Amino acid sequence: MSFDDAYEALTDHADDSRWAYGTGFADPLAGVDTAVPDGADRAELAAYCLMLGDDALIMSHRLQQWVTRLPELEDELAIANIALDLLGQARLLFARAAEVEGAGRDEDAYAFLRAEGEFRNVRLTERADADFAHLVARLLAFATWRLALLDRLTASADPVLAAVAAKGVKEVTYHRDYAAQWVVRLGDGTGLSHERMQAATDAVTPLLAELFVPHETELRLVRAGVAVDPAATREEFDDVWARVLAAATLRPFPPAASAGEAPAEAGPEAGPAGGLEAGADGGLDGGLGAGPARGLDGGLGAGPAGGLGAGLGAGLGAGLGAGADAGAGGRHGVHTAAMAEILAELQGVARSVPGGVW
């Protein structure tokens, strides 16, 4: 449907494809076969789409909370765009879930009308960020993991998931590289920025183990050629994480990691307390954008060859497994206390005015 001006488009309630609320002018799923692949259970495919969509939705919401609170205007734009990228991914995945589930729900119902226990996002996405260093540390961890997962998902037997993943790889490559540059800048910057960047990566560490623990639904879909086993992303994640932290002069694990201690949750009002100085010489020459989708370029080549190595791998496997209780995490609907605060804000309007339009 065409309109004479943008205002007419904004106020038309009969057209569900209002361009102003879309994820872009090009449909990444145009011409893609939407049939459910042979050997894939419809309910399980829908559940898997919700897992990936929930990761993107909750991470996007946390990033949106930082808009107008970031240290520089350039970072306002960067974080806002990263949040929008993830929101767009969530919408595509929710739309696919709705299509294969066939229960009459749409993307809004998934986002706004589910209870906390029905969400299947990993708990890393829920954590509040105490300052900008915590934000970029968490974003680095999430984007590094999601990029490795999406890159493998481009070979999915489900053409829709493969197309969504192909679009997401381009977006999440930037997300990871943006976060990596800030981690290096702050870690190898001033004494204060190094201290706060180290505290931020230490706080993220206990949340990492859950990322690599497959849900039983994922494993069944892996056998059908549809999904990716998150455990398969572990080696790539370890390598990138170690190289970035080495370039940032940061230790990869806190002293308490071996005891399985989880970090304290940042409060909902936590923000960029005083900001962080980047340090004039702390940047990465040439950035990371030139690197391939699944690896960082030579700018981080100074990191230890072979990734984290035996000692660090044990730190993730043993130390984090106990603290994070990865076997009953977000994929099973078990969330942190922060999730209730997120949903109260995210779902407030939709629940107060059911079916409302504007």
UniProtKB/TrEMBL annotation:
Listed InterPro entries: Aromatic_CoA_ox/epox, Ferritin-like, Ferritin-like_SF, PaaA_PaaC, PaaC
Top-level taxonomic group: Bacteria
Biased composition (Gly residues): 272-286
Cellular component terms (Gene Ontology): cytosol
Compositional bias segments (type: Low complexity): 256-271
Signal sequence bounds: none
Listed GO biological process terms: phenylacetate catabolic process
UniProt-annotated stretches for the region Disordered: 256-286
Name of the protein in question: Ring-1,2-phenylacetyl-CoA epoxidase subunit PaaC
Organism: Pseudosporangium ferrugineum
